[in-house]
Specification:
It is found in: Cytoplasm. This is Signal recognition particle protein. Keywords: Cytoplasm, GTP-binding, Hydrolase, Nucleotide-binding, Ribonucleoprotein, RNA-binding, Signal recognition particle. It catalyses: GTP + H2O = GDP + phosphate + H(+). Its main location: cytoplasm. The protein has helices at about 5-15, 25-40, 45-65, 70-85, 115-125, 145-155, 170-185, 200-215, 230-240, 260, 265-270, 290-295, and strands at about 100-105, 130-135, 160, 190-195, 220-225, 245-250, 270-275, 285. It has about 300 residues and is an alpha/beta fold. The protein has an 8-stranded mixed β-sheet with strand order 3-2-4-1-5-6-7-8, with helices on both faces. The longest helix has 20 residues, at about 45-65. The two termini are about 15 Å apart. The model has no long low-confidence stretch (mean pLDDT about 95). It binds guanosine-5'-diphosphate. Guanosine-5'-diphosphate (GDP) binds next to α5.
């Protein structure tokens, strides 16, 4: 993903790299080219506007102050602004003072939540936690079974609906799962929830009810980076509905344009915490804005 964006931006740097002097026209040409590349990659318009205005202003200041090596300076300014729109420095997960830490997943159907639950469970285990996955997606017929399979692959136990703990009632499954985790002293609980193909009020209400039942320390909004322009609207709907504290970008291994997903931190004001890069339980990493920016600008 982002190969085209990356090629376009690095090509635009060729004109300025190593130049001893930069004119306003040089800056304008480079910034315009980057602007076009960002828009073509589906980065949201307000984000592109903010980005180009900031870069242009700082670049002109650098030229006015006769910075040494202004071409290199411009590249650094672009890099820093890109890091900024990607959400800046990474933060750690919010952990409970009194475990278990409760992490709830939210997002559309197919976004990659169930797959992520396994990945996150495995990652938490590596971080020294004892996680429990809770199957509160009862919408998709196969979702519970799928969570059990990813749980097995990740080596993490799964709380699934059974008679007495909330069959048919995702809120009750979440509640009993959390009680079980408290009872057995699990240190982290990951609650998988149902999504629909599009945002609808019933789905959002169910997510809100689960949220209110388990009072999560983190609500992670899982966003399929391949859904293109819809990413921003979907993120806004979840922000205004159930709300969330962090974003997980999934399917970053795809070859779609994906720029809309890059806009999500700026648009929603919440950081991207993790990236999912494939179907395997190991295809998962912490998201670092600076590393993503250098990948794009390399
Ligand atoms: P959910 O409906 O949100 O629980 O989504 P799933 O976890 O079932 O994922 C939907 C589909 O996307 C499944 O076929 C997954 O294997 C696939 N998937 C999930 N995450 C990724 C990813 O990071 N990359 C790729 N290529 N596929 C993924």
């Amino acid at each position: 993903m982002f190969a085209n964006l990356s090629d376009r931006i690095t090509a635009s740097f060729k004109q300025v790299r190593g130049k001893g002097r930069l004119s306003e026209a040089d800056i304008d040409a480079t910034v315009s080219e980057i602007r076009r590349a960002l828009l073509e990659a589906d980065v949201a318009l307000p984000v592109v506007r903010q980005f180009t205005a900031n870069v242009r202003q700082q670049a002109k200041e650098a030229v006015a102050s006769q910075a040494l090596n202004p071409g290199q300076q411009l590249i650094k300014i672009v890099n820093d602004e890109l890091v900024e729109i990607l959400g800046g420095a990474a933060r750690d997960l919010h952990l409970a003072k009194n475990p278990p830490t409760v992490i709830m997943l939210a997002g559309l159907q197919g976004a990659g939540k169930t797959t992520l639950a396994g990945k996150l469970g495995r990652w938490l285990r590596e971080q020294g936690h004892t996680p429990l996955l809770v199957a509160s997606d009862l919408q998709r017929p196969n979702a519970v079974n799928q969570l059990q399979i990813v749980g097995e692959r990740a080596g993490v136990p799964v709380w699934a609906p059974e008679p007495g703990n909330g069959v048919g009632d995702p809120v009750q499954v979440a509640r009993t799962g959390l009680a079980h985790a408290q009872d057995k002293q699990y240190s982290a609980v990951v609650v998988d929830t149902a999504g629909r193909l599009g945002v609808d009020t019933e789905m959002m209400q169910q997510a809100i009810d689960i949220r209110d039942a388990v009072d999560p320390h983190e609500i992670l909004f899982v966003l399929d980076a391949m859904i293109g322009q819809d990413a921003v609207h979907t993120a806004e709907a979840f922000r205004d509905g159930v709300g969330f504290t962090g974003v997980v970008l999934s399917k970053l291994d795809g070859d779609a344009r994906g720029g809309a997903a890059l806009s999500v931190a700026t648009v929603t004001g919440q950081p991207v915490l993790f990236a999912s890069t494939g179907e395997k339980v190991t295809d998962f990493e912490r998201f670092h804005a600076d590393r993503m920016a250098s990948r794009i600008l390399d």
